[in-house]
Automatic annotation (TrEMBL):
The chain crosses the membrane at residues 40-61, 67-87, 108-128. Keywords: Membrane, Transmembrane, Transmembrane helix. It comes from the Bacteria. This is TIGR02611 family protein. It comes from Planosporangium thailandense. The keyword Membrane applies. It holds the Pfam family PGPGW.
Length: 153
């Protein structure tokens, strides 16, 4: 099957992922697909890895840090095997490009105002997480308290 795209599912209108990611994944996919039950196992591994990344990313979104970047990494992992994730990834990257183009077209004062607003939101989230911490449930009395900086009451 030299001329066909093994990444594409029959009936899908979303084109397969191309580029360095696809080139790195192709030998791994081929190895799995050459084994009995391999394609289903490969899809399951991709699904579970994507779920873990998206879940961790969503947990980190309210905190300062790379929460949305980790969510996008999870969607990218899903896009290796799932057409709906490729569509979502292309839509999301298109929106990010639109945002960057809009911001690039603005006067420098608007760009500074946007940057300062984002910095203020990040600092507010950091201050709230330090001041109030994240409550962690006790596991049979082994650990109880707060995650964060500051005294435990």
């Amino acid at each position: 099957m030299e001329g066909s795209d093994s990444d594409e599912r029959p009936g899908s209108r979303t084109p397969p992922i191309k580029g360095p990611l696809a080139a790195r994944i192709a030998p791994i996919r081929s190895w799995f697909h050459s084994r009995p039950g391999g394609p289903a196992l490969f899809r399951a591994l991709i699904a579970v890895t994507g779920v873990v990344l998206v879940a961790v990313g969503l947990l980190l979104v309210p905190l300062p840090g790379p929460g949305w970047l980790i969510v996008l990494a999870g969607i990218t992992v899903w896009a290796i095997e799932f057409a709906w994730a490729r569509h979502l990834l292309r839509f999301t990257t298109g929106q990010l490009r639109r945002w960057n183009d809009w911001q690039r077209d603005q006067h420098w004062l608007v760009r500074v105002a946007v940057l300062l607003s984002l910095a203020a939101l990040t600092l507010a989230a950091l201050w709230l997480s330090v001041k109030h911490g994240l409550r962690v449930m006790s596991i049979k009395g082994t650990f109880s308290g707060r995650v964060g900086v500051g005294p435990v009451e």
